[in-house]
Amino acid sequence: MFPENAQSSAPKKRKVSEPEVIVLETTPSPAPKKRKQSSPGHQSKSKTLKRKPLPPPPKECIICCEEYPVGSFPESPHLPNGKCKSSVCRACFEQHLENEVETKRWNAVGCPECSQGLEEPEMRQLALQSTYEQWLDKAAKSYNEATEDFRSCPSATCNWGCIFSTKADGNIFTCQLCSIRYCVVCEVIMHEDETCEAYQKRRETQDTAEEERRSETYLKKISKPCPSAE
């Protein structure tokens, strides 16, 4: 006979766990597409590469004879007329207009290629700002001088002027820019503390004395002593 606890004292068997099996699902890759064979007479379209146009060659200025890029030449104001070919560089164009404004009347400033007169829009576009302003001053002064009762300042360094009437403003012109006083009756700088009649009489006496002095000097220069007086 076995003891009562014989069954409980028997060794227990371990359960061995079964290995896990991992199943990977894969999606089938699509079958490669078959190329369509072009039918006879059908031409395949090929991409053409567009090349950038080459920049134009440099251009020679007809005044300084230097070569510059085409962008350095301003568009000629008379190009539609076929008289100009825009062959003067911007630096020479600006220098030409500066010389023209300084030496000529405002309405005689011309193009360096065809000498045709330039109008206000062309001067504003082609000339330097200082040259353009000087040209405007000349044009305004010329217009004002043609207007009745307009007077300019007599000072050589002043460009101011205004409408002046002797009936309303008297005989003394006062410049509002340089403050010079000018007698419009005697046409001289204002003779302070002296009336116009006294000034004119004094000038007449001075002019007569000066004329006599000049005549005497001239006679002494060209005359010779008489030989019979020796």
Automatic annotation (TrEMBL):
InterPro entries: E3_UB_ligase_RBR, IBR_dom, TRIAD_supradom, Znf_RING/FYVE/PHD
RING-type domain sequence ranges: 57-230
Gene3D superfamilies: Zinc/RING finger domain, C3HC4 (zinc finger)
EC code: 2.3.2.31
Recorded catalytic activity of this chain's protein: [E2 ubiquitin-conjugating enzyme]-S-ubiquitinyl-L-cysteine + [acceptor protein]-L-lysine = [E2 ubiquitin-conjugating enzyme]-L-cysteine + [acceptor protein]-N(6)-ubiquitinyl-L-lysine
SMART domains: IBR
GO BP term (any one): protein ubiquitination
Listed Polar residues bias regions: 1-10
Record's protein name: RBR-type E3 ubiquitin transferase
Native species: Hortaea werneckii EXF-2000
Lineage: Eukaryota, Fungi, Dikarya, Ascomycota, Pezizomycotina
